[in-house]
Amino acid sequence: MNPRRLRAIIRRVVAEIRRDRPSLALLFIAPILVTGLLTFILREGSTPAVHVAVANAASGPAAVIGDRLASALSYAGMTVTQVADAGAARAMVRDGGATVAIVLPATMASPSASVTVITEGLDPSGDASQIGAVRGVLTDAVASSLGAVLPSVTHETIYGTPSDDPMAPFAPAIVAFFLYFFVYLLTGVSFLRERTGGTLERLMATPVSRGEVVAGYTLGFGVFATIQVAVLLAWALGTVHVPAVGPLPEFSLGLGIAVAGSPLIAFLVVLLLALGAVSLGIFLSTFARTELQVIQFIPVVLVPQFLLSGVLFSVSSLPSVLQPLVAIMPLGYAVDALRQVFIRGADLSVGALQADIAVLAVVAVLFAVVASWTIRRDVV
Amino acid sequence: MMNSSPRPPEPAPGDVAIRAAGLVKHFGELAAVDGITFDLAPGRIYGLLGPNGSGKTTLIRLLTGMTRATGGHAEVLGVRMPDRANLARIGYMTQGDGVYPALTVGENAEFFAAAYGVADRGAVQAALALVELADRRTALAGTLSGGQRRRLSLACALVHRPPVLFLDEPTVGVDPLLRVQFWGHFRSLVDAGATIVVSSHVMDEADRCDELLFIRAGRVIARGSGDGLRAEAGTPDLETAFLHFAGEREVAA
Ligand SMILES: Nc1ncnc2c1ncn2[C@@H]1O[C@H](COP(=O)(O)OP(=O)(O)O)[C@@H](O)[C@H]1O
Ligand SMILES: [Mg+2]
Asked: Which residues of A touch B103 (CB under 8 A)?
């Protein structure tokens, strides 16, 4: 590794990105925009309007439960229409007159008694929120009709506090994913240009070694990854109040997500992840002929990582056949490590965090070696 | 377009700058280079002449160690290629321009100077002056005209003053006046002791070379000075001479 040559490559990579305004915007503005939007959705999301059709098959004194349920639902702020039977309820949901229907059985006392909830079925998460809206009221009404009162459930967590900020568990995963995504994309595209533009051939005709090229790229992109991580973490964790100026109202900048541990450790984790992403970009650019193809690798390489790394779905809830794949996803280790830091407040003495960091470091080195293999003098 | 400067003296036998020893390169079924052997003495300009696809670029890539030979080997200045350290003594101007469009003219030359391990800042200035781009130093390479980019590419190939220079179709897209200047530079480099291999698919500049190697289908079909080859083939021009040698091989084969 010749320091002069290495420095020349780093300076070149930095100069190229610095002049590429759209890429810079992509690197810094896009993650801020998307995390901001996601936070807004999660925190400020409004409960949808719920219009319930209630059909009650019971008659006589048992029929009173239908009235009781209807008034409890109205009391909870929902619009309620009582209908004659299940068929009418279903028709009402189908025609859009109701967003959800509840069909009560003829008797509640039988052990096989079953309450049917009908939704439209086009939008699973919309349906889920409809069911969520009626469920509490429904169980209370049914319990009281049977003469019971359900105890209230209190949720406590070992780390952090439950549900005070819906964005809190997502923030670490989103920060890691964005960094991985953008660093991969930029490295992949710029290395592809190096291959197709003939400059890699030129570079390989100098005494520069493949290791120097990978190291130069890693450190050059490392500079931007570092700044990106710093900006993104500051944005995610900080809150700066901007006082009202003239006609502008006061507002605050930053997502203000709580972090229990040290932001510096979080920084180290994402940086390791980013170094691996540089090598991944170099490696995959071998298999691409055009910049579009670099983008086409995203569904193949990045989306599975997104799905299997606990960003959206809990890793333990994934099917067991996928578990071995989970173990080889670098992003998963970063997401876990960041959650350890953000929520659990882990420091470097925590074994689970040490393991995550060790894996990320090994992956970064391994990818760098593989990437340098792909820069063969034959492969241009 | 006869060369006015005198031919360099015939070199002493045994003095070899570039050696090809039974070079073969296959791409699948295709033999892009099909058994080429030669010794090139230092201090001369050699022309690799042959139509597109005859294997000139592949031969140069074998000689510079950019690709591994299927058979045989190459030596440059007595060192068997590929050899990374030896690349500091070799300049290679690729057929494509191979410069960074987002960097300025000066940054491109400085980058390749650093890659070749040149510490002297004057070298960059000298190389740019040679190709008459010194006044465009701060222009982005991506904004240059085709001819200017070709000149920058040449500057990047000789910024480290290599004793051996491979130029793959260096004058394609360069205007006639500049071509004359290019050849003037090549001649002065050779006069200073360099060995230059220039490839071309057209014959119009062939007489500027000290020695020509006709390449066809991955083989050297004739070698000699322009006058020598014309005389041997008994033809007035080199195109017809090329066809003569190509036909001769066909008959022999
Ligand atoms: N990397 C490669 N893979 C497959 N075929 C190649 C490759 N490089 C060159 N060739 C083939 O080898 C032959 C010689 O090519 P080349 O050396 O570029 O010729 P020239 O430079 O004389 O035009 C051509 O038929 C070309 O298609
Ligand atoms: Mg060629």
From this structure: 12, 15-16
Interchain contact, B114 vs A209, CB within 8 Å: no
Contact across the interface for A378 and B68, Cβ inside 8 Å: yes
Distance from the alpha carbon of residue B58 to the mean position of ligand 1, in angstroms: 6
Q: Which residues of A touch B102 (CB under 8 A)?
A: 15-16, 19-20
Over B4-45, what HEC string results?
A: CCCCCCCCCCCCCCEEEEEEEEEECCEEEEEEEEEEECCCCE
By C-alpha distance, the chain A residue nearest B107 is A12
Of B68, B102, B116, the CB nearest to A20: B102
pLDDT for the residue A314: 79
**Distance of alpha carbon B40 from alpha carbon B21, whole angstroms:** 11
Least confident of A73-87, A221-235, B71-85, B141-155: A221-235
Q: For chain A, where do the domains classified as CATH 3.40.1710.10 start and end?
A: 51-157
Quote the pTM value.
0.81
> Which pLDDT score is estimated for A111?
80
Q: Are A341 and A320 in contact (CB under 8 A)?
A: no
> Is position B22 within any domain?
no
Q: How many domains does chain B have?
A: 1
For residue A203, the distance in angstroms to the closest alpha carbon of chain B comes to: 8
Pocket lined around ligand 1, Cβ cut-off 6 Å: B 27, 30, 32, 50, 52-58
Domain interval for residue B51: 44-66+85-245
The superfamily CATH assigns to domain A51-157 is: abc type-2 transporter like domain (3.40.1710.10)
Radius of gyration of the CA atoms of chain A, in A: 28
Q: What was the pLDDT predicted at A222?
A: 85
Q: What contacts B187, CB < 8 A, 6 or more positions away?
A: B3, B5, B45, B208
The per-residue pLDDT for range A277-313, each reduced to its tens digit, is 888 888 888 888 888 888 888 888 888 888 888 877 7
Q: Which two three-digit tokens encode residue B116?
A: 């070749």
Mean of pLDDT values over B212-230: 95
In chain B, whose CA is at the least distance from the CA of A208? B115
